[in-house]
Amino acid sequence: MVPAGHAGAYQLFNQAVEASRYIDMYDSPPGSVDINWPASGSGAWYNGEIYITDPTPWGEPTLYHEYGHFIMDVYADLPTFDYCNGICDTGGCGHCIWHPETGYIHHMEGVPNFFADVQSAYWNRDDSYGFETHSATADTYPVSQRDEIEGITASILWDLYDSPADNQHNDNPRDNLSLGFDEIWNVTTNYDPGGPSYDYPMTIHQFWDGFYSFYPGYRQGLWSIFAEHHIQKDFTAPTNPTSVYSSSHSTYTWSNDRTIRFYWSGASDNLSGVDGYGIWVSETSTGNPSAVIDEEGTSHTTSSLVDGTSWYFHIRTADNAGNWNSGAVHRGPYYIDGTAPTGLIQINGGDTYTRSRTVTLNLSASDNLSGLYQMRFANPESLYSVWEAYKTTKTWTLRDLDGARRVYVQYKDHAGNVSTSVYDDIRLDRQAPTGSIVVNGGDAYTNSQTVELTLSASDSASGVSQMCFGNFGESWTPWETYGTVKTWLLKDIEGWRRVYVRFKDHAGNTNGTAQYYDAITLDRIRPTGDISINSEESYTNSRGVTLTLTADDSGSGVSEMLVANLGVSGSVWEPLTGTKAWELKDLDENQYVGVMYKDRANNLSYTYIDSIILD
């Protein structure tokens, strides 16, 4: 049982023992310290001994705080200072956890504040400070004074010690360390800042130097905690990436991909760490990206770029402290051509027909940027040929089928853009036309060298276009437009005459050796003959006589005769006969009978006459 009225002393003694036991885990025992309670005056303080007044209200952290002064005096030889500075002296000399103080007060009080929090947390005591609370760390004061506030000093030490990561000010830097007490104690009691008066840290900045010196591997986490409390310790710009390259494009090389993918590595910052990168894609070879973080990772894909020959990528680095590298890394130029070439194709110079599968393709194409590079071709229902160097002509084989034939072409530029398929058509016709010829409507004979030819021809593919002629044994005439009638001059020799014709279609096919012809006999010689009345008698007493008729024709042959009494009209042509009964005129006198002969070519003989006296 604790004697009545001694509960406070027992509590103080118990807390002092706890604090001493805690220090024993990290250093040699601190020894004893006198605790005066109840002390005269007001408040609580340490001045070689611990003083706690009564009835001044105090909680469990109060003794831990004053014990913190004691261990700093023992292990770090840090004395107390005069607090009567007019800042927080209302009601007596004092200090404020939330207000900037002069000299070293912020550190001399901030470390005990932190120690009190550690003890309260470790021994599961009441924690009245709460250095994760914004109001306790005096966020309302200017950034330039944050390193003069004891609450901020305690809060920084607490963030090094505690386990949860936080973002007390919602401005990105975070408490990312959870080291415990040992590292903090080591720096506080063993780091010599090299000053003329003290051998241990007297400011939060000297604590930074010691921690940075003893534990450089934690420098980024240390910086983050200081930055979280708006105490900036990083004033050195990061380095830019040492390797910057594009995985999709090469410099001075055409590409049809309008978006360029970049990767980089090698940027560094030895304190706050790399935060991100400013990116600028431009058509100038120099210049810095603006101080705005565009990428936090190590890759970037540009937006869609317009065609051009001078695209450059610029990158520079920012660290988490907001420092920017003053220069940039530049890559380029990159050539962008996303526009396909255009072009045309003509088969055989635009001909409509061909009689050969082998044709000449006439090609024309243009590309305004990277230039024409290759071309390829295809017949319908077949794959495209392999790419080949662009040129203006190409020998090509059509599909082996007469009729309308189509050839496709595609053009490619140096950037890899492929044009749409363009084509031309031509009709393949390898069949000669067929036809016929008739001379003078099929007559067998003619007495004129000039005849009329009747022509007929057909071609199911390209159609008949021309014709030419020849007499037997003579040269062919020049080709002329096809027609169905032709005036022709036979060879100037009597006899059987043959006329030849050749037809040509629009594809140029001719009937060749399969010549078409017709024949007619040319006969321009008069037939010859004679006539005899009653076998050459001189007299007759009868009007009825017998005519003996003879005729000859070496060409077409005599076919008809015309017999008449002289001076009497009305006779008609009749077939040739050797004899003919005839009636003389009804006049006693010397009567004459004439005859004319006609051959099959319509040549007329002279008139042959004989006479006899009717008595």
Question: How would you describe the overall organization of this protein?
Answer:
This protein is α+β, with helices and mostly antiparallel strands and 615 residues long. The chain is built from seven helices and 34 strands. The chain has a five-stranded mixed β-sheet with strand order 12-18-17-14-15, with no helix packed on it. A five-stranded mixed β-sheet has the order 20-26-25-22-23, with no helix packed on it. Strands 28-34-33-30-31 form a five-stranded mixed β-sheet, with no helix packed on it. The chain is rod-shaped, with a radius of gyration of 64 Å. 32% of the residues are buried. The model has no long low-confidence stretch (mean pLDDT 89).
Helix content: 10-25%
Return the average pLDDT rounded to an integer.
89
Strand content: 25-35%
Q: How many H/I helices?
A: 7
Number of E-type strands = 34
Radius of gyration: 64 Å
Q: Short summary of the structure?
A:
The chain is of the alpha+beta class. Helices cover 15% and strands 33% of the residues. Helix 1 (7-24) crosses helix 2 (60-75), helix 2 packs across helix 3 (105-122) and helix 3 crosses helix 4.
Blueprint (SSEs and pairs):
Blueprint (H helix, E strand, L loop, with lengths): L6 H18 L10 E5 L4 E3 L3 E4 L6 H16 L29 H18 L27 H12 L20 H9 L13 H11 L4 H10 L14 E4 L7 E2 L5 E5 L8 E9 L16 E3 L6 E12 L9 E8 L5 E6 L5 E2 L3 E9 L5 E7 L9 E2 L3 E5 L5 E11 L8 E7 L5 E6 L5 E2 L3 E9 L5 E8 L8 E2 L3 E5 L5 E11 L10 E7 L5 E6 L5 E2 L3 E9 L5 E8 L8 E2 L3 E5 L6 E10 L8 E7 L1
Parallel strand pairs: 1-3, 5-10, 12-18, 20-26, 28-34
Antiparallel strand pairs: 2-3, 4-6, 6-8, 7-9, 9-10, 11-13, 13-16, 14-15, 14-17, 17-18, 19-21, 21-24, 22-23, 22-25, 25-26, 27-29, 29-32, 30-31, 30-33, 33-34
Helix pairs in contact: 1-2, 2-3, 3-4, 5-6
